Amino acid sequence: MSENSLAIRKFSDLANPTRFLALADRLLPWLAGLTAVFFVVGLWLSFATEGDYQQGETVRIMYVHVPAAWLSMMCYSVMALAALGTLVWRHPLADVSSRAAAPIGACFTFLALVTGSLWGKPMWGTWWVWDARLTSVFVLFLMYLGLMALNRAIDDPARSSKVSAVLVLVGFVNIPIIKFSVEWWNTLHQPASVMRLDGPTIDPEFLWPLIVMAVAFTLLFFTLHIAAMRNEILRRRVTALRRLAARSAGRGARTK
Amino acid sequence: MIALFFRDLKLSIRAGGGAMIGVLFFMTVVAVIPFGVGPDLNLLSRIGPAILWIGALLASLLGLDRLFQAERDDGSLDLMLMQETPLLFTVFVKCAAHWAATGLPLVIASPLLGLFMNMSEIAIGATMLTLLIGTPAITFIGAVGAAVAVSLPRGGLLVSILVLPLAIPVLIFGVSAVYAAIEDPAPFLPPLMILAAITLFFAVIGPVAAAAALRHASD
After folding, report:
1. For labelling alongside B142, which of A39, A121, B15, B161 has CA 20 to 30 A away?
2. Which spans are transmembrane here (chain B) (predicted)?
3. Which residues of A touch B145 (CB under 8 A)?
4. Confidence (pTM)
């Protein structure tokens, strides 16, 4: 296979898993390096900046909590896009992508829940409240786990892909609920202070570390996602090869 | 379509259909609660609406895996897939029949259980009304889960896990509407309207997604 045939010009060229693997191999070290750089800068910034006048040192939890929460929603959106790709364009990699993203999304959601609860103890005086935002994120976590259980229950990936894609799209109803829950129900969790139409209301002192950490988390997600997709493709190849070997072994035994 | 409705209804009401088991399960769950929290009538009347709603939610989850399973086992699901009428309507009618066989008995049984829970007349009426409006939504959401898990050998538990998170809004607004009816300052109508909106929303989304899942599960 020459180098030329592996060049990717169109999005549909990615449908060839070999091309994708070649691209992933070339991309992964760079992505991983970039992620490490952003994490070093972000962590340094988040510990170098001053604490809040009211919250003190605990404000630093925000630099992990907020990016993890963003990522938990973005990961589900990526899965929904991939589900659309599976159902509409029948893109072969879309199913791999949505399957690989589910455990990563579950991890980010879990991280957001745990850090949020650690932050809530000193600030709100309780580990957990049944507030609209917290409840809807918890539902998101349950949905990730349910999707993972469904993916495991059907062992044939060709069949599980379409079915779980339908479920991913139905579950997407939850994402706008999470996003707007703090505005529709005015409860304990504070409303959005960074992504607003009239500009962020947060102090630049906190904004910069937050942005750098958000970029670092996003890069981390893409690194993990591409690596997981590569593993999933390789796993499927191994399964296919094993089946082939078993079949030829059976045929060899019969001819003897 | 009407023939299909009555066929499904008859199948689930007759022996082995499991429609009555749902009501029995509902009664058992509600009857177990006083043993857990103690027979304090004031407390029971306060948590009664919530208990009835949770019991109804669990009971309607119980029969969901049978929604398409029996049809798949005897092959009539393939006939429905090949029919000229859109699969969407078939699924919708099947959901309606399933609700009439399993959801409606729950609504009818709820006043009796409300008496056990020492609830006032207004609370019983409100619970019955919200259950009547809310349980179809659970059936429509459940149809998606049932269609997704139809090809699995042991799909029952998985259906519950997949469906429960999506059914939480129904529970929230159903219970809050009942409490709004009992306690004076909160208005009763807004949560009831939202509950009706959720039911209508899932009456559209549910059959579409379930039909898509059934088509892909069969090939």
Report:
1. B15
2. 12-37, 43-64, 85-110, 122-150, 157-182, 188-214
3. 167
4. 0.78
